[in-house]
Specification:
The complex is a heterodimer of chains A (about 325) and B (about 350).
Chain A: E1 8-21, E2 24-37, E3 41-45, H1 52-60, E4 67-75, E5 78-79, H2 85-95, E6 96-99, H3 103-106, H4 113-124, H5 129-142, H6 148-151, H7 161-173, E7 179-183, H8 191-208, E8 211-216, H9 219-225, E9 228-233, E10 236-242, H10 243-248, H11 253-261, H12 301-305, E11 311-314, E12 317-319
Parallel strand pairs in A: 3-8, 3-9, 6-7, 7-8
Antiparallel strand pairs in A: 1-2, 1-4, 4-5, 9-10, 10-12, 11-12
Helix pairs in contact in A: 4-5, 4-7, 5-7
Chain B: E1 20-33, E2 42-55, E3 59-63, H1 70-77, E4 85-90, E5 93-94, H2 100-107, E6 110-113, H3 117-120, H4 127-137, H5 143-156, H6 161-164, H7 174-186, E7 192-196, H8 204-221, E8 224-229, H9 232-238, E9 241-246, E10 249-255, H10 256-261, H11 266-274, H12 316-320, E11 326-329, E12 332-334, H13 347-352
Parallel strand pairs in B: 3-8, 3-9, 6-7, 7-8
Antiparallel strand pairs in B: 1-2, 1-4, 4-5, 9-10, 10-12, 11-12
The chains are: A alpha/beta (about 325), B alpha/beta (about 350).
Chain lengths: ~325, ~350
């Protein structure tokens, strides 16, 4: 939408994240590449352990010391990999913010919510107390917290889960970020609240021209809100396409399995679900071929021997599969 | 439906499966909370006069958001803790008021599976001890018989006893741990299993496996389920009938298919409209907030209809008079003064196309 031809705000190139663990090295993210420009929404979809959160924490510089990041993370053209913590904090602090799943753990339970927003405001801008307070109330209004002036003086436990997540989003917006990463930001919320928060995020994004990366296990949510979807499995991107294209022509059997496993209102009661057997592989002992091979309905000998490249099979649509599904969606 | 019917199937022959296995009438559960730290004290009206039946062989789904009282209801049915008032009968035996051994015996045919499998399995125990424990608690069988039963139920849930019997919970994946919890629930050969968000914490592919296991056990053993979840699509998919709860009350109860195709209560309509659709042709950003705000506090619920403060159809009478849950169609009850008719604008079905 907005942004020039090469206006990628964030660009990941061959990102790898390795963890040193007692059980040996674990590659949690492997050869991940994607880019996102201003005003766009990218969904990173995958199950637990697929690397979607770890890759985003790498972007934020929020990984523990036993993690090693290699490859490239460029934000507004500047390389983040290899920067010192201090340089990273300066670059990132101004431009990228993250919202996590559990709003109560992101907030300080002993501090009034308004003060927490004001503190975030002052850490990003040189404002006096009164100005920070005014800005904090503005932010609380922006995230549509009901009765912001009153809520300003309340503690997190006095707010509902949805209201807490609004406060967390207000804190994230304190730095006027160009990119917001929402890591399962609505997963812990009720479905009606989830719809409210997703709507808020979408409106804020339009209003502020932010890029949004939504990390989720929910393909349904991605279908409703994302411009582009990256599906991850065992630390890698296995399929990537504009949302419409992906749902119209699923190629990777894993994506198809995810889509078919979503509970659907259209299914008759007691319908058996199409399932893939087994569970995701142990990242410390990945097989040489395709990581999805042991569970894949399309598998053949080649899949066990050789890892399929993540290649563009159609314009804008990439997948990592030797024997992709041919036609339309399930 | 068209699946092999094994011999042990307990499915009732008479009465079309309509005789209630579990019957709840006007169940009320309240908790006193002390005001502290700026929170208002008072009485949490968690479950306020809920009546429902679980029929033999059926799955009754209960859907509702946080604070709707669905988990409290499940526990009240099991008498843990005992409801404040009302009646709960299991196969004709009144549970409310029973104590000690009599209660244990009456409750034997009801088992529960919880959301967090690791939280419900003792980390120090081996899998076989976990699944045999209910037999020991009830003093059933010899050591050998218990061991054999343990292997049988593990086999039923798709776990190879040779591989898993000696493992401890931390050596299991989430899906495997939930299978162990299900195996333990089966040990006493229950008639009813209460699933409280039993698949909600599992990844979607593992969730599908466990849901299929529930369906398979239902076919093989003729089990009834009370299936509680916040996800309406999930509940609808496994249930014959669905009860929708809001702030401690059942607001709609009907056949799963009818509830989805022709929801009668404005809250059900809102729930349906809030589900993001995995349909590629649905307009982007379709999942719209059908209702605004948060549910009111169960300490101080609104007068009249409890949904009225968020209801787009509310009128003066809704604040004054509580609508009773009554049949508007055969088998399909709603508690609303102004129920949604199919001719009305219905965002849920309009959006699903």
């Amino acid at each position: 939408m907005s942004g020039a031809a090469n206006g990628d705000l964030l660009q990941l190139g061959d990102l790898r994240v390795d963890f040193r663990t007692a059980g040996g090295p674990v590659r949690a993210v492997d050869r991940l590449s994607y880019s996102i420009s201003a005003g766009r929404t990218l969904a990173l979809i995958g199950e637990s352990g697929s690397g979607k959160t770890v890759s985003s924490r790498a972007v934020m510089g929020l990984l523990p010391p036993n993690a090693k990041v290699s490859g490239s993370i460029r934000f507004e053209g500047e390389e983040l990999v290899g920067l010192s913590d201090k340089q990273m904090r300066r670059l990132r602090g101004a431009g990228i913010a993250m919202v996590f799943q559990d709003p109560s753990r992101s907030l300080n339970p002993t501090m009034r919510v308004g003060a927490q927003v004001a503190e975030a405001v002052r850490s990003h801008a040189d404002l006096d107390r009164a100005a920070a307070r005014t800005r904090a109330v503005e932010l609380l209004k922006l995230v549509r917290l009901p009765l912001p002036e009153q809520r300003y003086h309340e503690y997190p436990h006095q707010l509902s889960g949805g209201m807490r997540q609004r406060v967390v989003i207000a804190i994230a917006l304190a730095s006027s970020p160009k990119l917001l990463i929402a890591d399962e930001a609505t997963t812990a919320l009720d479905v009606t609240t989830q719809a409210q928060i997703m709507e808020l995020l979408r409106d804020l994004q339009r209003q502020l021209g932010m890029a949004l990366i939504m990390i989720s296990h929910d393909l349904g949510l991605a279908a409703s809100f994302a411009d582009e979807v990256v599906v991850m499995y065992a630390g890698r991107a296995v399929e990537q396409a504009p949302t419409h294209e992906l749902f119209a022509r699923v190629r990777m059997p894993y994506t198809k399995a995810l889509l078919e496993a979503i509970p659907r209102l259209e299914r008759p009661p007691h319908a058996r679900l199409p399932v893939v057997p087994g569970r995701p592989p142990d990242l410390a002992a990945l097989p040489p071929g395709c990581p999805f091979e042991p569970r894949c309905p399309n598998r053949q000998d080649l899949c066990r021997e050789s890892d399929p490249p993540f290649a563009e099979g159609e314009p804008g649509h990439r997948w990592a599969c030797w024997f992709p599904c041919n036609g339309g969606g399930p | 439906m068209g699946v092999l019917v094994p011999v042990q199937r307990r499915r009732p022959v008479s009465g079309n499966g309509h005789e209630p296995l579990l019957q709840a009438r006007n169940v009320v559960q309240e908790f006193a909370v002390r005001g502290r730290g700026g929170v208002k004290g008072g009485v949490v009206q968690a479950v306020s006069g809920v009546s429902l039946d679980v029929r033999a062989g059926e799955t009754l789904g209960i859907v509702g958001e946080t604070g709707s009282g669905k988990s409290t209801l499940a526990r009240s049915l099991l008498q843990a803790p005992r409801p404040k008032s009302g009646s709960v009968t299991m196969r004709g035996t009144e549970l409310v008021g029973l104590r000690g051994k009599a209660l244990l015996e009456a409750r034997k045919s009801m088992q529960m599976v919880f959301q967090d499998p690791f939280g419900s399995l003792d980390p120090k125990w081996r899998v076989r001890d976990i699944v045999e424990e209910p037999l020991i608690a009830y003093g059933v069988g010899s050591r050998e018989e218990r061991r054999a039963r343990g292997r049988e139920v593990l086999d039923r849930v798709g776990l190879d006893a040779d591989v898993f019997a000696r493992r401890r919970p931390r050596q299991l994946s989430g899906g495997q741990a939930q299978r162990v919890a299900i195996a333990r629930a089966l040990t006493l050969d229950p008639a009813l299993i209460i699933c409280d968000e039993a698949v909600s914490s599992l990844d979607v592919l593992i969730q599908a496996q466990v849901l299929n296991l529930f369906e398979q056990l239902r076919d093989e053993l003729g089990l009834s389920y009370l299936f509680i979840a916040h996800d309406l699509a999930l509940v609808k998919q496994v249930s014959d009938r669905v009860a929708v709860m809001y702030l401690g009350k059942v607001v709609e109860l009907g056949p799963a298919e009818a509830l989805y195709r022709e929801p009668l209560h404005p809250y059900t309509v809102a729930l349906l409209a809030s589900i993001p659709s995995p349909d590629p042709t649905a307009p982007k950003g379709k999942a719209h907030a059908a209702i605004s705000g948060d549910p009111p506090s169960p300490i101080d619920p609104p007068s009249g209809c409890r949904f009225r403060t968020r209801c787009p159809r509310a009128q003066d009478i809704c604040a004054v008079q509580e609508p009773p849950l009554s049949d508007l169609r055969p088998e399909h009850a709603v508690a609303c003064h102004f129920p949604v008719r199919s001719s009305d604008e219905n965002p849920a079905t309009a959006g699903a196309r």
